[in-house]
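Hi there, hope your week has been kind to you so far. For a while now I've been wondering how a particular protein folds. I'm sending you its amino acid sequence along with the backbone structure tokens. Could you read through the record and tell me how the tokens relate to the sequence? Take your time with it, there's no hurry, and the full record follows here.
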Amino acid sequence: MLRLATALLLVAAILPAQDDLDRQMKSVIDAYSIVEHNASDPVSSEQAFYQGAIPGLLRRLDPHSIFFDPGQFEQVKKMEASTQKGFGSVVSLLPGRVIVLQTTAGTPSAKAGLAPGDEILAINGYIISRLDLDQLTELLSQSRQQQAQLDVRRPGANGMMRLVLTPVDMQAPSVERAFFLAAGIGYVRVSSFDGSTGADIKKAIEKLGGNRLAGLVLDLRNNPGGVVTAALETASLFLQPGTKIVTVRGRSVPETSETVPSIATPYGFKLAILVNAKSASASEIVSGAMQDHDRATIVGEPTYGKGLVQSVFPLTQNTGLALTTALYYTPSGRSIQKPLDAAKFELAATTAHPNAQSEFHTDKGRPVTGGGGIRPDFVVYPPPMNRLRAVMDASGSFTNFATEYLRSHKIETDFEVTPQVLAEFQVFLADRNIQPSVGELSLEQEFMKNRLKTEIFNQAFGVEKGDEVEAQRDPVIQKALEVVGS
């Protein structure tokens, strides 16, 4: 009964304060009492409220207000610390295969002897070749939570190695890549915003040359957001002191605006920011502020449109509640939150239409579109996937060829894919019943050369070097390079 009482208190905490709250709560108690005594199967009060009543109520508010049971709330606290269990390796997932691309020095993977090019054949007795990609992803996720036994085959070696790896808490870096795209033009990719992201971006920029740079491409694609203070610190690296970054407005939250600190010393080089449909929340705060103040050119796809302010409330029994309490607005007044489906989220109809107007203006008077999310100044989509590219990717042809090629070839950083290497790759494809026409080979030659070089560099020099090669065929990066290099 203690858990039941706790669950009822949680429901009461969520329901709005009103005169008939006692009557509503009595209806909840009466309904549960009938279910508990008459349902065909026993009913757990914890399941009924933690997995039923409370989540059901929150689902009518918006897509991001969530109740956390004790286990989930513990995971949230770990995520806030930006740590997760892991082995310290980067792998390529292929149909029925897992190839090691890179290991980090000092991590369990490196200490156990894993090396680029190694193929993981089995994990804890589960044979990789028998699993589809969804099953494989789930297995890899589970294996990072406890000691794992790996059966590994090394290229050119006889037999199989059996390794035992114990996962450790690892800091998940949010700044994944930092390199040069061209002379004086840097590139920094940020995968999320955590407590150290602002400082880490500054460190990456200084490594590339700081204010000596002619321009920078900041890649926020697939960045779901994170800690808002990190977004404010990031924006302060590029905006003048006193400049407005974002405004918060809510029914029970006083309107406040966050500005760049007076002590900020921003960079002055040209800036382009890359976004896509998976760029959300803190990513949209940064890109929206940069666009409104004409400080950066935004390139890519329209962003997700998640501008709901989430406040996390710890509750009794080690549970928690993430509740939407306000909305984020860019400096020009645009709501970042895309309109909600009023029929689906009828309990929070006030957030369904956050802006009465659809057009806003930047500091220089340029029109920018409201309605949720950030629309880029230059909309650039990834190239469409054709039949041949899909077959080569799905079969893991590039990664598998790279593994075989490196068994018999030692390469340097000036390596290029020659016609001879392309011919060897065509034979490799034919042996696997992939036989493109002469026309297809002609059209896809540059694509195949870049993909081959990328995968070979991934395994020979690490995934950062592979990313540098891949950037050369990324149309979004190339448009940004054109913008900041002009």
Remarks:
- The chain is about 35% helix and 20% strand.
- The mean pLDDT is 84.
